[in-house]
Design goal:
Elements: H1 14-35, H2 40-61, H3 64-67, H4 73-98, H5 102-128
C-alpha cells in the first residue's frame, strides 16, 4: 500500500486558507442555527457545507486529486462553490428576513459571510484552471 503524500504548503496557500475559513464560518453558522432551533434546512445547509468544504480541503491536502485523476477536481470544486453560494443566498436571506430569534439572525449573517467566501473561492479557482491546457494541481500561489 502506497503512503499518502501530504502537501504541507497547501494550508498556508491562499486557497488553503480560504478553505479553512469557509469550513470554520460554515461550522459557526451551523452552531448558530442548531442552537437557535431554527428550521432544519438552515442547519442542514450549513452542516453540509462544513463537511463538503472539509472533504475538498482533505482532497487537496493529501494530494488525492492527483491519485483520482478520473475527475477534474478544480471544476467540481467550482461547481460546489457556485451552487453553495446560490443556496446560501436564498437560505440566509430567508433566515435574516424571518429572524425568529437572535441565533437565526447570527446564523444568517455568518451564512452571508460564507456566501462571500464561496464566491471568492470560485473566482480564485476559475482563474487558476485552464480548460485547454494539461491537468495539473491548482495549489500554486
Amino acid at each position: 500500500m502506497a503512503a499518502v503524500e501530504v502537501d504541507s504548503g497547501f494550508p498556508r496557500s491562499p486557497r488553503g486558507a480560504l478553505k479553512i475559513a469557509r469550513a470554520l464560518v460554515a461550522f459557526v453558522a451551523f452552531l448558530c442555527f442548531a442552537a437557535s432551533r431554527a428550521p432544519g434546512a438552515y442547519a442542514a445547509l450549513a452542516g453540509m457545507e462544513t463537511v463538503i468544504t472539509a472533504l475538498f480541503f482533505l482532497l487537496y491536502l493529501l494530494k488525492l486529486d492527483k491519485k483520482m485523476s478520473w475527475l477534474f477536481w478544480p471544476l467540481a470544486d467550482i461547481f460546489n462553490s457556485v451552487i453553495a453560494a446560490l443556496f446560501l443566498l436564498v437560505v440566509c436571506l430567508c433566515a435574516i428576513i424571518i429572524k425568529s430569534n437572535n441565533g437565526t439572525l447570527a446564523g444568517g449573517v455568518f451564512g452571508l459571510v460564507l456566501l462571500v467566501l464561496s464566491a471568492v473561492d470560485a473566482v480564485l479557482l476559475f482563474q487558476k484552471i485552464s480548460l485547454g491546457g494539461p491537468r495539473g494541481r491548482n495549489t500554486a500561489k
